[in-house]
Amino acid sequence: MGQLQKTDRLKAAGFVLAITAASLSLGQAQTNEEGRDYLARLDANLPEDQARAWRESPGYSQERENFVNVEYRPTLSNDFTRRLIKQARRAARRDSGCRRMQAMANDFGGPLNLDRQVERQVLQGELRNAWTYWVDAEGCDRRYRANFVLVEQMDQSLTSLDLLPGETLAWPSLQSDALPKIALTSLQAVRLNDPECIPSSRDGVIDTRFENPQNAQLTKMFGVVLNGRWSEVWTMSICGRELDLQVAFRADGRGGAAFQAKPNTAAITANESQ
């Protein structure tokens, strides 16, 4: 019920559309009605002012998101789920350096209707929807969360793409926006100590941690933070070293976010998993 895609870790979050574009051509033969955003279909018979209410009322939005999450969530075959778990376990062992990592729990995160890439292609009738999915692993007194995007094609088949691991709130298109800057900032920091550092396909973000010291209120709908500021720590593995970067985000209310990344150059350590 779909094939897992293997992607470079620095490009893995980039993501939903570039890699699956070839497989989306079958959606062109479907009617646009089939490919409409779920919210548009659910609200098709409502007056226009009511149909817009989900964007204006957080409470109503949460109800709609919960409804979509329950009623339209795709069903995963046992084989597809096993392959997701196997891929997560492999990533956990690679990134943590612990060969005893085992998957402990897994579930859907939620629909990604408001991710700009997903929303555009759903409205164009090129895919049905996309969903986040996570797998938690534990071992060697460590925890690891693997994150995926499950892309539901027009024929209801599924493909899976890697997202960044850990607790990040960044949705797929925001990860795509941020990763080039994160990679460049990390490389510049590491080259202060290792001028000969040349990144390889094994390098990438190996963990993310959510931090919100000001306890700011965030408005999150359909996979996207629409309002608020928050902070995360992204751990990059590059040239045999690990580097933490403090990444500050500010949602712009339009499905994107401004971000700034500051490396902790005083805490660059050897990566024992390599």
Helix segment tally: 8
- Overall geometry comes to globular
In helices, the fraction of residues equals: 25-40%
Average pLDDT reading: 78
Cα gyration radius (Å)? 19 Å
- The ordered string of helix (H) and strand (E) elements is HHHHHHEHEEEHEEEEEEE
**Main sheet makeup:** 5 strands, antiparallel
Count of beta strands: 11
User: How many domains make up the 3D coordinates?
Assistant: 2
Low-confidence stretches: 1-38
Helix/strand/pairing class, anyone? alpha+beta
* First-residue to last-residue Cα separation: 34 Å
Beta fraction: 25-35%
Can you give a write-up of this model?
The chain has 274 residues and is α+β, with helices and mostly antiparallel strands. The chain folds into two domains: 16-162, no CATH class; 173-270, no CATH class. It has helices at residues 16-20, 38-42, 48-51, 53-56, 58-71, 78-96, 116-123, 172-190; strands at 102-111, 129-139, 142-152, 158-162, 204-211, 219-221, 224-227, 229-238, 241-251, 257-263, 269-270. Strands 5, 8, 9, 10 and 11 form a five-stranded antiparallel beta sheet that branches. Mean pLDDT is 78; it is low at 1-38.
